Amino acid sequence: MWLGWNIVWLGALLIGLNGTVAWASDIQHHRYEELVRALFAVQSECPYITRIYSIGRSVEGRHLYVLEFSDTPGIHEAMEPEFKYVGNMHGNEVLGRELLIQLSQFLCEEYRAGNQRITRLIHDTRIHILPTMNPDGYEVAAKQGPEFNGYLVGRGNSREVDLNRNFPDLNALMYYYEKTNGRNHHLPLPDNWEHQVELETLAVIKWMQNYNFVLSANLHGGAVVANYPFDKSRDPRIRGKTTYATTPDDKIFKKLARTYSYAHSWMHKGWNCGDFFDEGITNGASWYSLSKGMQDFNYLYTNCFEITLELSCDKFPPASALSREWLGNREALISFLEQVHHGIKGMVYDNNNNPIGNAEISVAGINHDVTTGVDGDYFRLLLPGTYSVTASTSGYLPSTSTVTVGPAEAIQLHFYLKVAPKDTNLTQSHHSKKNLSSAKVGPR
Question: Are the beta carbons of 14 and 22 closer than 8 angstroms?
Fold first, then answer.
C-alpha cells in the first residue's frame, strides 16, 4: 500500500497540467506584513474566484485574514460544502502558515492553468484558508528565528495564553450526556463564555457560528502525525497512562486521518521525530489527554469534523526546508480537502417546498447528529455502507429514508417534512430537549 501511495504522490509532484515537470520554487518565511501582501497578491491574480475577509483582530490588533476560494466568493450555494484550514494556532509552529500560503498560490495558479481537478474543487467547494490564528505569537517566535527558537517561545498569544487550551470545555458535558442519553451535538456554551476566551479564540468561534463548516484541519508542528478526536480522555488522568477516547464517528475520523497520512510523502511510515505512530495517525487522548482544544470543540459545538495535523519535527524549520515540506504535503492537502465530498448531502423542505433550517439529521447507529444550515441544506460525512437516516424538527413529523453510500461523490438525499397534527407531542429529536444546562505541554 505504501508503494502505491508513493507512486501517486510522485505522479502528482512531477506531472503538471500539460505533462511538464513542476518544481517548487524557493519558499521563504513570511512575517505578518509579508503574509498580508502574499494573500492580497493571490486575490489580485484570481479576483473572480477569491475573497479576503477578516474574522477579527489579535490582542495586538493584527487582522486574522481568511482567503476564500469559490466560483461565487462571498456567497454560500445550497448543497456546496464549506471547508476550512487553520494554521499557526501556536505562534512558534510555523510550517502550517507557510504551507497554507503555498496552497493558496497553488490553487490560484492551477485554476488559471485549467487544471481540471483544481477547477472542479473550487467550483464545487467553498474553501476558507486562515494561514495564521496567532499572528502575535508568530512575531515573538520569528524575532528569534529558526536557529534559536525555544520550544515554548511564541507558542501562546501576546498574553502567553495557549489558544489550543482556550476553547470552552464541552467534553465534560458530552461525557455526562452519554451516560444520561442527553444531547449529542451542538452542545450549549457556558454563561459568559465570551469573557473567558482570548480575542483570537473568540474570533474563531464567531467564524464557526457564521459558516456551516463540514470538514476542517488545523496545522501544527513538533511531531509528524494526523491526530483525530477526542483529544480529552473520559478517564481521570493517571500518570504514565493514556486511554483512547472514541467519538461516535471514530471510523470516519480514522479514514480522514489516513487520507492525509498516506497522501503525505512520509507521515504514513510511522517513524518520525523519534516517535512511532502506526500508519501515521493517532487518537488524541491515546497520545496524551488535552482539555479545551479546538478540534473537539468543532465536533461538539458545530457540524464540522476537524483533525489536527502535526507536520514537522522542527516547530520553526529553516527556510531551506520549506520547499521539501511543501512538496511532501501538497497532495495530502488537496486529497484531504476532497474528503468533504463524501457521505450524503441534501435539502430538508416543508410541505410547500420551503427549506427548513436547523433541522436535525440523525443516522441510526451513530450517536452524533448534524443540522441543516439556514438554506436548509445538510452534509453528513459517512463511510461506504447502507444507513437509515432521519430528518426531524419541531412542529413536523420526522421522515426516515434508507440510503446506500458509495466510495465516490456524496449521495443526494432530500427530505420533505409534513406538519405535525396539533395534538401530536413532538420534540425536535430524542436528544434535543434533554439535559440542557447552562501538564504536559505537547505539540498540539
Answer: yes
